[in-house]
């Protein structure tokens, strides 16, 4: 996956997850790029999300290896990420 393809997918997820009141920014000076999501109400609630190419879409993977969703399910994936940082109930 090119860095630009991964960055584009992560940017779309960032837009979706900020609706939950969290901060999100793409860290693209790393290889591979990743999305850092944090809850402004907690100094400890931070999650890094990585993007992996799949046959028909892209998968979003938590820093601890759990599959969170795909580029075809951005809203559901955003909700899961927001839940991980304590910004929403399950």
Key words describing this protein structure:
alpha+beta, 90 residues, five-stranded antiparallel sheet
Shape: globular
Number of domains: 1
N to C succession of SSEs: HEEEEEH
Oligomer: single chain
The proportion of strand residues reads 25-35%
User: How much helix is in the residues?
Assistant: 25-40%
Number of strands: 5
Distance, first to last CA: 31 Å
Low-confidence stretches: none
Describe the model.
This protein has one domain (3-84). The chain is 29% helix and 30% strand. The protein has helices at residues 3-17, 74-84; strands at 23-27, 34-38, 46-53, 58-62, 67-70. Strand 1 (23-27) and strand 2 form a beta hairpin. Helix 1 crosses helix 2. The termini are far apart.
Task: Write a compact overview of the structure shown.
The protein has helices at residues 3-17, 74-84, and strands at 23-27, 34-38, 46-53, 58-62, 67-70. With 90 residues, the protein is of the alpha+beta class. It has one domain (3-84).
């Amino acid at each position: 996956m090119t860095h630009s393809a991964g960055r584009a997918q992560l940017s779309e997820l960032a837009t979706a997850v900020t609706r939950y009141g969290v901060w999100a920014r793409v860290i693209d000076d790393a290889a591979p790029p990743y999305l850092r999501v944090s809850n402004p109400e907690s100094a400890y609630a931070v999650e890094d999300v990585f993007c992996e190419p799949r046959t028909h879409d892209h998968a979003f993977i938590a820093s601890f290896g759990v599959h969170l969703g795909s580029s075809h399910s951005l809203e559901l994936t955003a909700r899961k990420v927001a839940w991980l940082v304590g910004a929403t109930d399950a």
